[in-house]
Amino acid sequence: MSTDEIVDPTIAPSDQFRRFLLHIGIPVAGVVSVIAIIAGVGWHSYQTARTGALALTHDLLVSQQDYIAKEVSSFLMPASAGAIVARDMLEHGAPSVEQKIFNGYSSTMLRNVPQIQSFYLADGDGSFSELERGGNNQGISVTTLQNRGTDKATFAHELRDGNDKVIKQWQTPAGNYDPRGHSWFADTVKAGQEFWTHPYVVEVTRQLILTSAVPYKGADDKTHVYAINISLDHLNKFLNSLKIGESGNAILLDHDGHVLAGHGMEETLVQANGDPMKMVIDPARFPVMTKAFDQYRVHGYGARTVRVNDKNYVTITANLPVGKDSWVLLLVAPEDDFSRFAMASGRQNLLFSILVVLMASGLGFMLFLQARRSERLRREIEQSHAVANYESHALQSVAAYPELFNPEDNALILTEALADQSHARRAAIWRILHDGHTLMCIDSYDRQQDVHSGGFEMATTDLKSFFDAVSHGDALAIASAADDERTAAFYRVYMRSFGSKALFCNPIQGATGPVGVITLEDAPRADMVSHFVDMIAGVAAARFSAQHFTAVAAAREELESEPPADEEPHDPSQGFLLAPGALAMNGQQAPADLKEMNGFYPAVAIMVISLSDMVMTAQNDPTANIKLIDTMAGLLQDIAHQCGLYSIRMLGHRVVCVAGCSHTPDKGASYRMANAALMMRENMLAMLAKEDLDPIFRIGMDVGPVFGGMLGKEPQAFNLWGDAMGMAEMMAQGAPDVGTIQVTEDVYLALRQNFLFRERGRFFIPGVGLTRTYVLAGRR
Fold it and tell me: Membrane-crossing residues (predicted)?
């Protein structure tokens, strides 16, 4: 069972949801609410300040507009009212004093009204008089048209001082000048009432002026026109001198959009080449005024806000009555000129609110992270408790296993517990054999396939780096065993065929140092359960020690305390490689007691060594082949005598060894035969390696009842037959690899306390049925 699946049944989902709300949901919701309230208040405050500032701006600009309208009206009023007064005076005066009235009244107006530039007086016959300021505003200049309509028409000029005394007189050609052809005369007569002209340029002074004229009938019944001229330079200076906010401007236009006076008048006049009818607002130079006047054309008079170049402007268009006509007074000012302090205060409040929101958001985020971390730690603690409980249950299961320290039991629960706790693909327990040069797999558990295996052997010569790492007693956690020089050979020999990648090794410490190692393949939780692995390593070390002392005690008991078996005496005629007819050539007769060898033998250990034909074909020199076989025969015979076997004979490509040939069961026969098999295998492998030959033998072994007896005439031969003989030969022929020892289940059951085996599986054998076979791997 995976630890991720471990849950505490006492914790209901509703409790988890409630805890989530208390620890994360409510605090975060509170912080979000505070942030929302602060942001809402800040935005509302900013909008309120902005709305109030705009309202204040409009009110201030409207007040400014009223003031400017009054000032402009006051600026123009003397011309309008003065023209009407002069008309009444001239209309009722005698023709003889008309010029005197004109001069007296006009000079008085010039001295008292600075914006007035000059006065005109003309009649329907073409008479013309002009009164204007003298040069440098010194005195008064009077101009009269003489000899009108002739080639000698001239302008007679008189410069008079403040006492009306003539200071200077001169004349200038008048050309074909006729006042009746000018707009101020013709349009006024046509209108029959007071009339304001468009700006125009005076031919004599080349100044841009604006004229207010009134018609009247004189005593001589002629139509006369009295005109007062106002210099637009004065009007421009007046409009430009007005302070509208900090950077606002005012401009005076007629309803057709012609500029009369105000901001940009000089640039507009230059762009129009001095033509007053072409003096209109340039959209490229004055985009705000252009847009404001367009808004007036569409919506009429009033205050509005326009946006140009990402900036807001407040504009007001007002009606300015002038005589019977009216002009448009246009005021333009940036929105923040009047409300900069309020807008700055609103922006500061908004920025402060944003700063508070950001800080609150940061604190809320930190609170959220802390709550998540607390919740994660709580889950980890709960999971750790669950894992600890699960490990505790696993340890209890291991400790409660009744055969845990029984050397005869394989204790498969150990590798299963390791694989389950670490989620390893495979878990294995390895033992370093007593020779110190062999690593034996006691048990390997594949968690995916749920199968056990064992008996794998690895030599120091093949895995030196791995042996060195294990011998130092250090734990190894390697993500890629194939890329680490310490485990690369182990990976090639053991792991690659199973597709494993990662390797975790934990040493099994004995009294004198490492006695084995635990390996976990592809174990993602190996580091988390290292303490559990240490405990299992301690259990394995105790089992190894118990197995060692049990094997030693059993061997000593069998060799010393057990009564000797009544094994039949050795017959030299059944010796190793005995030439046929040797007894006859030696003239010896079979002993009389050989007749008693016939009969049933209940437990005979039989070993068959099957040799390959490669022995005969490995070398071209027959003499060398015979020498090799002779050396091998002497070696095997020495081992047979050393291990106390009954008989060893070579039959063709087979070597047959017999032990325990007695009418009473010999419990030590299988043990002696297994020792002989391991010694013969190791010595044959070394001898063949020295001759540069591959292993060319397989070994089979069985134990069981057989029949035996002396057969034939002199010299008689002793022979055994039965299932044990056939099974031993079959085990040799069916061994999985060259150089391996395959045994039957009876041999395994008899020797599992003292030797290490690995199971090959179940096989069908004719006459026997399904049976298990094992590979003898080594001594415990």
Answer: 20-43, 350-369
- Residue 556: strand, helix, or coil: helix
DSSP assignment letter at 661: -
Cα 551 from chain centre: 61
Q: Is the CB of residue 68 less than 8 Å from the CB of residue 331? A: yes
Rounded to whole angstroms, how far apart are CA atoms 258 and 69? 18
What does the pLDDT look like over 197-227, one tens digit per residue? 877 776 656 677 888 899 988 877 888 999 9
In sequence order, the β-bridge partners of residue 763 are 771
- State whether 312 and 436 are in the same domain: no
Is 459 domain-assigned? yes
Percent of the chain clearing pLDDT 70 (strictly above): 82
Given this model, what pLDDT does residue 136 score?
A: 73
Rounded to an integer, what distance in angstroms lies between the CA atom of residue 147 and that of residue 127?
10
Domain final residue pick, 495, 528, 559: 559
The mean pLDDT value for 383-404 works out to 76
The backbone region for 459, taken as left when phi is positive above 0, alpha when psi lies in -120 to 50, beta otherwise, is beta
Q: What is the CATH number of the domain that holds 510?
A: 3.30.450.40
For the chain, how many structural domains are there in total? 3
Question: Residue 615 belongs to a domain with what CATH number?
Answer: 3.30.70.1230
What pLDDT shows up at residue 8? 47
- For residues 731 and 773, the answer to whether their CB atoms sit within 8 Å is yes
**Cα–Cα dist 702/719, whole Å:** 17
| Cβ count near 50 (within 10 Å) | 17
- Residue-wise pLDDT for 566-585, tens only, equals 444 444 444 433 333 333 22
Q: Is the pLDDT of residue 780 over 80?
A: no
| Predicted confidence (pLDDT) at residue 565 exceeds the cutoff of 50 | no
Distance CA 460, CA 468 (A): 9
Of 441, 540, 494, the C-alpha closest to 756 is 441
> Residues 132, 117: contact at Cβ < 8 Å?
yes
Residue, of 637 and 336, whose pLDDT is higher: 637
For residues 233 and 117, what is the distance between their CA atoms, to the nearest angstrom?
Answer: 10
CA distances from 665 to 539, 660, 675 (A): 36, 7, 19
Give the C-alpha separation, 158 to 166, whole Å. Answer: 6
Closest CA to 774 of 739, 736, 729: 736
Same domain, 432 and 310: no
CA separation for the pair 210, 202 (Å, rounded): 10
- Can you tell me the distance from the alpha carbon of 571 to that of 745, in angstroms, rounded to the nearest whole number? 31
Q: Which amino acid is at 140?
A: I
Question: For 140-158, what is each residue's pLDDT tens digit?
Answer: 889 998 888 788 889 898 8
User: Distance (Å, rounded) from C-alpha 286 to C-alpha 268?
Assistant: 10
Domain of 251, in residue numbers: 234-238+245-337
Name the DSSP class of 217: E
On whether the CB atoms of residues 756 and 779 are closer than 8 A, the answer is: yes
Q: Is residue 479 a part of any domain in this protein? A: yes
Q: What is the pLDDT of residue 498?
A: 80
Unique residue bearing structure tokens 């005394």: 165
Same domain for 631 and 742, yes or no, is yes
Closest Cα to residue 751, out of 607, 624, 612?
607
Q: Does residue 393 lie in a domain region? A: no
User: Is 82:324 a contact under the CB 8 Å cutoff?
Assistant: no
What is the arithmetic mean of pLDDT over 652-666?
85
Question: Is the alpha carbon torsion for 432, 437, 438, 439 positive or negative?
Answer: positive
pLDDT tens track for 162-182: 777 888 888 888 888 888 888
Confidence of residue 16 (pLDDT cuts 50, 70, 90): low
Predicted local confidence at residue 351, as pLDDT: 77
CB contact at 8 A, 490 and 525: no
Q: Residue 20 pLDDT more than 80?
A: no
The DSSP letter of residue 550 is H
List, in sequence order, the alpha helices (H) in 618-668: 622-643
